[in-house]
């Protein structure tokens, strides 16, 4: 996919285009080689980067969009990116990163959640929490979601890491919240300025050590620690019920059930609070 051809032509660079260039320069000055591209609108930033990797044109980059017409979360859920007044309501971005073929990818979405929580704390957000395996919460409401997808190239296995973060309250979604509602006045480029250095440094460490260096940090942010939960299968039917314990060095979630301790791997399952 030609990124330049995907954006609407304009006589002069937009403020977002200039912000993308400034962020790329700041990353380079800090020793991070990562291109930053801006698109006013695209189908899906994850799909765009996956297509490049599969075509043999993968590069380390972050693609930021103002609107996604076919944006999706885990299990193909849509991400709402417009506020009631039509203004931008979300940070929508995807980052492509090559990992060694032998690298264990389990736990990557959890590590990204830790880095995102740390970045938002640096911007003044209080008490972010993580829901296994890929959501960031404030209280019981969703603030951000993470989608990690993988594509293989001859020289590497590429991780494409999509993040959707509510800057303003999404319309008609009572279960969601936003930075604005939490009293944090930060736009997409402020968030990315805090997040991308942590993300890029973290990915370098993840390639060498896997998830284990961030296990304790994730468990300290665990939103449902000690709570009764149920694991739902792809069909929505409960597969397992128990008390949420924590995650291990591979990113697997452990539950205490009536039959003893059970390990849950991410995949075609969802985690929900158990309603009595």
Layout: helices, strands, pairs:
Blueprint: H1 3-6, H2 15-29, E1 35-42, H3 45-54, E2 61-68, E3 90-99, H4 108-122, E4 129-131, E5 135-138, E6 141-153, E7 156-166, H5 188-209, H6 215-220, E8 228-232, E9 238-247, E10 253-257, E11 260-264, E12 270-273
Parallel strand pairs: 1-2
Antiparallel strand pairs: 2-3, 3-7, 4-5, 5-6, 6-7, 8-9, 8-12, 9-10, 10-11
Helix pairs in contact: 2-5, 4-5
Question: Which descriptors would you attach to this protein?
Answer:
276 residues; alpha+beta; seven-stranded mixed beta sheet; five-stranded antiparallel beta sheet; 6 helices; 26% helix; 31% strand; disordered N terminus
What can you tell me about this protein's structure?
This protein is an alpha+beta fold and 276 residues long. Helices cover 26% and strands 31% of the residues. A seven-stranded mixed sheet has the order 1-2-3-7-6-5-4, with helices on both faces. Strands 11-10-9-8-12 form a five-stranded antiparallel sheet. A hairpin with a 2-residue loop joins strand 5 and strand 6 (141-153). Helix 2 (15-29) runs parallel beside helix 5 and helix 4 (108-122) packs antiparallel against helix 5 (188-209).
